[in-house]
Amino acid sequence: MAITSTRLATGGLNYDVYTSSGNNAITTIIICNTLSAASQTDEVTNSANLTLYLGTSATDTTTIVKNLNIPPGETVFFSEERVVLSNGDKVIATSSLSAALSITVSTLPV
C-alpha cells in the first residue's frame, strides 16, 4: 500500500495529487480542511470547495466531484468504491481557497 499526501497551496489551481505508475487501485481518498473557525463568520469564509478529477487532465469529462463544500476542521472520506488507474492516470484536485485542503490518497498495485 502506498500513501501520498498533498496540500493544495494555491486556490483555483489544479494539483496532480497522485499519478499512477502502472495499474493501481485507489482504496481511499481523504480530504481535510485544516483551517479553523473561531466564529460563525470564519465558518463561512474558511469553507473550501473541492473539485476532483480522475484521468490524464482536468476537464468536465473527468470530473468526479464538483464544488464539494468542506467546512473548516472537517474531513471527508471516499472509501466505499475502488477505482483502478492505468499508468499515467492521475487524481487531480482544485480548491477554492489557498492552503485550506490536505488530500491523502491510498493505493494498492493490481
| SSE order, one letter for each helix or strand | EEEHEEEEEE
Radius of gyration using CA atoms only: 14 Å
Decide which structural class fits the backbone.
Answer: mainly beta
Tally of distinct domains: 1
Q: Oligomer, anyone?
A: single chain
List low-pLDDT spans: none
Number of strands: 9
CATH topology: Jelly Rolls
Largest sheet: 5 strands, antiparallel
Q: How many DSSP H or I helices?
A: 1
Distance N to C terminus: 11 Å
Q: What is the general shape?
A: elongated
If classified by CATH, what would the architecture be? Sandwich
Q: What is the mean predicted local confidence, pLDDT?
A: 94
Helix content: under 10%
CATH class: Mainly Beta
What can you see in these coordinates?
With 110 residues, the protein is mostly beta strands. The protein has one domain: Jelly Rolls, CATH 2.60.120. Helices cover 5% and strands 54% of the residues. The protein is built from one helix and nine strands; from the N terminus they run E-E-E-H-E-E-E-E-E-E. Strands 1, 3, 6, 7 and 9 form a five-stranded antiparallel sheet that branches. A four-stranded antiparallel sheet has the order 2-8-4-5, with no helix packed on it. Strand 4 and strand 5 form a beta hairpin. It is elongated, with a radius of gyration of 14 Å.
Question: What is the topological layout?
Answer:
Layout: E1 2-7, E2 15-19, E3 24-33, H1 40-45, E4 48-55, E5 63-70, E6 75-78, E7 83-85, E8 90-95, E9 101-109
Antiparallel strand pairs: 1-9, 2-8, 3-6, 3-7, 3-9, 4-5, 4-8
